[in-house]
């Protein structure tokens, strides 16, 4: 059963900024179908007594005290910047989207 | 940008529509370090000097939750009468924008740390309006973009943008109301008063400096209209980043007027975000909410759940400070002001100042006289907040002390205050430097009295004849001659002695 349409793949790809060719959209629609079906089987097995798992480790409350540690030197911060100006990252103009 | 938009006057719009507001308020917590990494947070630092691999989203960098930030979030939840989650988790909110180097914001989605609360908000006339709180959740701030080129630093027309990540990762708590209904024509005022009340609570809890002008507190204003209070909710717009109390009120008014015009023309309201323009007090269309709002939230795999123990929550509840509303009630009773006087004091932002002045030893009435009189006028004419005037409660207390001890009178005190405001020093120093003390030596007074009597012989005769009416003219002349530094009561006594 096909649950993922090509339109959905194209939309999610656009949201994730991934440029896909029409062939790739078709192929991924099929592959995502397989994944969704597999997860549907898990859902069918899971009963209300089985809580959803978002973390495999039985840990909670892992905290850090609010104590400063040295920051990265600015040179290191900007080392990966495609371009920099006045200690800041320089990026192409941002279109009217926020 | 300046395309003419039809607007229906606010009062007119309210005859046909019932406004419903909703507010999302972000507060930057005043922790020493960021939400998920130990970069020190300081306002105004050089760009990109408060950045770690976590704030940059470098591969392999792992976040760890700041315990103090969680504590602050719980305190905020408790102060807003919320339930505190027994367990909650973080989620990734995915979006692409240069201010967000990870390409997702770490936030909370289906499991906020606090939920189901309320806040009673006092309006300017003393009416109490209850605002229901849906949730308060933890998240992190984004970096700061500066758009270069184009006009006025706006996105449109910018040639490039410069990004500073010092702000990226500063802890935020976002507080979301349920739809606020029943406010009617007072909707703008309720919105403003609610955010104001939140600001006061943040400061009282000491979880944030909560300075609006620094963007520590930012509000998104949701507004929709419906035909009657019984109609279903209309389509809403969300005006982003409204950052002053006055603008919050204006943004509500503007959207009521704009949406009413659209609906009157049988149009439909587009569900969208809108930009607030401080300069024109208007909003303009941002992006539609539909697709862009698909943030593909999912649980943050790098952070484990936050499960505050009930003991911790109760400990924090027990340690909550006296909240602003309680404090106002207590001070009102202690000071004995009339209701209207108290409201004026609160609305003028004079509460802390008067409290500190009283604490420094001045009577409540004396403190109010200065802050709500001379100083309120000064603040108004200078267009600044009372608290920003260059005078301290201790100085006002000292000033009133000089009046109480008889060293200066009210008129001289006002001159001394001028000197204090002009930066000439503390009141006592100004009084000495300007020679403002009341003349207590009878010698110079008698000289001035004799001169005045001689200058106005008719009046002197009348007084001698037992007609005390014109004595004021002599006192006035003496006051003038002593540049206001005489004690008028003493002058009167001396005049009467002189002519008898």
TrEMBL record, chain A:
<comment type="subunit">
    <text>Heterotrimer of A, B and C subunits.</text>
</comment>
<keyword id="KW-0067">ATP-binding</keyword>
<protein>
    <recommendedName>
        <fullName>Aspartyl/glutamyl-tRNA(Asn/Gln) amidotransferase subunit C</fullName>
        <ecNumber>6.3.5.-</ecNumber>
    </recommendedName>
</protein>
<keyword id="KW-0648">Protein biosynthesis</keyword>
<dbReference type="GO" id="GO:0016740">
    <property type="term" value="F:transferase activity"/>
</dbReference>
<keyword id="KW-0547">Nucleotide-binding</keyword>
<dbReference type="GO" id="GO:0050567">
    <property type="term" value="F:glutaminyl-tRNA synthase (glutamine-hydrolyzing) activity"/>
</dbReference>
<dbReference type="InterPro" id="IPR036113">
    <property type="entry name" value="Asp/Glu-ADT_sf_sub_c"/>
</dbReference>
<dbReference type="InterPro" id="IPR003837">
    <property type="entry name" value="GatC"/>
</dbReference>
<dbReference type="GO" id="GO:0006450">
    <property type="term" value="P:regulation of translational fidelity"/>
</dbReference>
<dbReference type="GO" id="GO:0005524">
    <property type="term" value="F:ATP binding"/>
</dbReference>
<dbReference type="GO" id="GO:0006412">
    <property type="term" value="P:translation"/>
</dbReference>
<dbReference type="GO" id="GO:0050566">
    <property type="term" value="F:asparaginyl-tRNA synthase (glutamine-hydrolyzing) activity"/>
</dbReference>
<keyword id="KW-0808">Transferase</keyword>
<comment type="function">
    <text>Allows the formation of correctly charged Asn-tRNA(Asn) or Gln-tRNA(Gln) through the transamidation of misacylated Asp-tRNA(Asn) or Glu-tRNA(Gln) in organisms which lack either or both of asparaginyl-tRNA or glutaminyl-tRNA synthetases. The reaction takes place in the presence of glutamine and ATP through an activated phospho-Asp-tRNA(Asn) or phospho-Glu-tRNA(Gln).</text>
</comment>
<dbReference type="GO" id="GO:0070681">
    <property type="term" value="P:glutaminyl-tRNAGln biosynthesis via transamidation"/>
</dbReference>
<comment type="similarity">
    <text>Belongs to the GatC family.</text>
</comment>
<dbReference type="Pfam" id="PF02686">
    <property type="entry name" value="GatC"/>
</dbReference>
<keyword id="KW-0436">Ligase</keyword>
């Amino acid at each position: 059963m096909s649950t993922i349409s090509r339109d959905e793949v194209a939309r999610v790809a656009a949201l994730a900024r991934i440029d896909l060719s029409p062939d790739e959209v078709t192929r991924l629609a099929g592959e995502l179908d397989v994944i969704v079906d597999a997860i549907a089987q898990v859902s069918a097995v899971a009963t209300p007594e089985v809580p959803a798992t978002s973390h495999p480790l039985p840990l909670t409350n892992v905290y850090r005290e609010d104590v400063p540690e040295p920051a990265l030197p600015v040179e290191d911060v900007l080392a990966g910047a495609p371009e920099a100006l006045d200690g800041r990252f320089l990026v192409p103009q941002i279109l009217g989207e926020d | 940008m300046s395309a003419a938009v039809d607007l229906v006057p606010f009062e007119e719009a309210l005859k046909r529509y019932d406004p419903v507001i909703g507010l999302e308020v972000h507060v930057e917590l005043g922790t020493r370090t960021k939400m998920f990494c130990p970069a020190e947070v300081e306002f105004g630092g050089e760009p990109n000097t408060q950045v770690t691999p976590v704030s940059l989203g470098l591969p392999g960098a792992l976040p760890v939750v700041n315990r103090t930030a969680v504590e602050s979030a719980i305190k905020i939840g408790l102060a807003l009468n919320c339930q505190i989650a027994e367990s909650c988790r973080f989620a990734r909110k995915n979006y692409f924008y240069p201010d967000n180097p990870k390409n997702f914001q770490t936030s909370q989605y289906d499991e906020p740390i606090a939920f189901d609360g309320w806040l009673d908000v006092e309006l300017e006339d003393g009416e109490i309006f209850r605002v229901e709180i849906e949730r308060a959740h933890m998240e992190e701030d984004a970096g700061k973009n500066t758009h270069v080129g184009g006009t006025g630093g706006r996105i449109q027309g910018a040639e490039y943008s410069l990004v500073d990540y010092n702000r990226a990762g500063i802890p935020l708590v976002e507080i979301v109301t349920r739809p606020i209904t029943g406010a009617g024509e007072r909707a703008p005022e309720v919105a403003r008063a609610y955010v104001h009340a939140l600001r006061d609570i943040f400061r009282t809890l000491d979880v944030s400096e909560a300075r609006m002008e620094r963007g520590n507190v930012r509000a998104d204003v949701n507004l929709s209209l419906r035909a009657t209070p019984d109609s279903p909710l209309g389509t809403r717009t969300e005006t982003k980043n409204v950052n002053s109390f006055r603008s919050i009120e204006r943004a509500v008014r503007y959207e009521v007027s704009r949406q009413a015009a659209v609906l009157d023309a049988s149009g439909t309201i587009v569900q969208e975000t809108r930009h607030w323009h401080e300069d024109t007090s208007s909003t303009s269309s941002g992006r539609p909410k539909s697709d862009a709002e698909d943030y593909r939230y999912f649980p943050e795999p790098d952070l484990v759940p936050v499960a505050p123990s009930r003991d911790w929550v109760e400990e924090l509840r027990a340690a909550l400070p006296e909240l602003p509303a309680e404090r106002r009630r207590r001070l009102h009773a202690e000071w004995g002001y009339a209701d209207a006087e108290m409201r004026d004091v609160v609305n003028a932002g004079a509460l802390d100042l008067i409290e500190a002045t009283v604490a420094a030893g001045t009577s409540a009435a004396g403190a109010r006289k200065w802050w709500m009189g001379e100083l309120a006028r000064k603040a108004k004419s200078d267009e600044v907040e009372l608290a920003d005037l260059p005078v301290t409660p201790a100085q006002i207390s000292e000033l009133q002390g000089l009046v109480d001890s008889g060293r200066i009178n009210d008129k001289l005190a006002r001159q001394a205050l001028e000197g204090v405001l002009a930066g000439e020093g503390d009141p006592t120093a100004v009084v000495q430097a300007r020679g403002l003390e009341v003349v207590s030596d009878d010698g110079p007074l008698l000289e001035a009295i004799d001169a005045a009597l001689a200058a106005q012989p008719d009046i002197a005769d009348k007084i001698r004849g037992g007609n005390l009416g014109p004595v004021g003219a002599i006192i006035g002349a003496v006051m003038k001659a002593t540049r206001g530094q005489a004690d008028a009561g003493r002058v009167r006594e001396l005049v009467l002695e002189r002519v008898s």
